[in-house]
Fold:
Amino acid sequence: AQTVTQSQPEMSVQEAETVTLSCTYDTSESDYYLFWYKQPPSRQMILVIRQEAYKQQNATENRFSVNFQKAAKSFSLKISDSQLGDAAMYFCAYSEGGNAGNMLTFGGGTRLMVKP
Amino acid sequence: GAVVSQHPSWVICKSGTSVKIECRSLDFQATTMFWYRQFPKQSLMLMATSNEGSKATYEQGVEKDKFLINHASLTLSTLTVTSAHPEDSSFYICSSYPGTGRSDTQYFGPGTRLTVL
Structure:
């Protein structure tokens, strides 16, 4: 079974600084998707960024970017110019297959605190 | 963007009663819907995968007779917690997948908080 591990239960960053959240996963598949989701206090899951395993180029979405190391099975999230609104739980997730319509396996989450 | 709703958002019930939670995709048809459970300060755990017109596929350890899932249409899936007990108290979240033709992304509902007294 696939597993997703987030080794940092909590992280803290100063407003306007950069922070990196770590994620590792275990799979024997070659086709899969990786995601970072944000869960604010409202508990609504919000997709932050996604990466298709077949793509070598790291995904970016405005202030959010990933470092996808396929051989190392590592998928870290970098948040630049951190804002107060970035404070939330962040979950790394894995989905097997060639599309995003398969079950998601989530990591344990990282709580990000942003200091003003 | 695509919107998924859940109803109710919060429900309190007595032990032994049954509770139905609805998950609706409001502006798209979902080929697949997923049900997750999230205990306090924990991650999301998949309970079952639901496809319209067919029986749900349950994850290991999830009692299919206790958590009844009905995917009645391409826009509606329901989760019924039968004979609920305090240990069933949790946050239940659904997600809907419209297929590869539309952004190839799962869309999450806002969740339902269930408290069993």
Observations:
- The mean pLDDT of chain B is 92.
- The interface with chain A takes residues 31-32, 34, 36, 38, 42-46, 49, 91, 93, 95, 97, 99-100, 104-106, 108, 110-111 of chain B (CB under 8 Å).
- DSSP finds no helices and eleven strands in chain B.
- The radius of gyration of chain B is 14 Å.
